[in-house]
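Continuing the batch. This is chain 6 of the set; chains 1 through 5 are on the previous pages. Same settings as before, nothing changed between runs. Recording input and output for traceability.
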Amino acid sequence: MDARRVLILVLSNYRFKHLSGGRFNLYSDRYLIPLDDALQIENTSAMQKKSDLNAIEDTKVLRLAASTIAIEKAGLTALEKALKNSLAAAFAASVRCIAASKGRVIVTGLGKSGHIGTKIAATFSSIGTPAFFVHAAEANHGDLGMISINDIILALSWSGETIELEGILNHSRRFNIPLIALTAGENSSLGRQADILLLLPKVEEACPYGLAPTTSTVMQLALGDALAIALLETRHFSARDFKIFHPGGSLGASLRYVGDIMHKGDALPIVKAGILMPEAMKVLAAKHFGCLVVIDAKGSLAGIVTDGDLARNITRDLSGVSVDEVMTREPKTISPDTIAATAIALINQYQISALLVAENNRPVGIVHFHDLLRIGVA
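Output for chain 6:
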């Protein structure tokens, strides 16, 4: 063994720290041992940890997962019951207060409540209620200037005693800014100062030690979503409005209007009623839509000839048959201002490949399911 020794601080669980050089104070629970011995202890400890990980049973993990969901579900059930009873008046008052506001909703909180608050603010903003999140601690260092007297403050704190909220609470009282509290602490500092108290029922956390916010944050998030959807309905926020705030991604694609993506004009495979099938088939082959739009003498929609119609007449001699005898009357149509998500839903529902776009019973376009897939509508 090398005469040189290294100070190794060994704790009771065999975790240690190497120290070399300098001066050290040794305590009764620390020992001076050779480096090789310390490395052997560490290797043994690592093997033990690996063994413990391997010993974890899938059934136990799944049981814990199911238990977590069950506990959080119980919290949501308690919240649902509260909304029908003790929480009903405060919830309705919150919706009225926010809907009547000329400013924004300032959501604030700290820790896990702060993270939930960030999501609530984002949801509000995306569906027509202007909102943003102000960090409770940062508010005490200048961010109070982001809040105007026309705004409404929605403060989240499970206990209601978050010290960092004191600055923003005092600010709301000083300038008479409406304060809505989302808390389980009825007699807390936050609860007492609030104009409207959204009192959450006290429930069991899914954390086995009752420490990590789990059930409580799920309930906060659910009540925030409930407020957002209630405001959406109150303000008659439509899918068209939704599109304004969601232009990107698959969601933005699903909110595009059919009139923006449909084929129109000379691209349409239109034939007049009474035309013989051989002539109609030439148009079908030239336009590549797999269907024919049939119009009457006034230009109104009379019917559609699809590949299904042709399959049903495959045994017939169509050389002297008009499109009127083959077409499907009263085909499925949509208007140009229908969103793409609705169009793909109808295509899937009726198991067709294309939809006619019509206005006042006149064909103005065709949207094929390939067009919808191309822009990202799944």
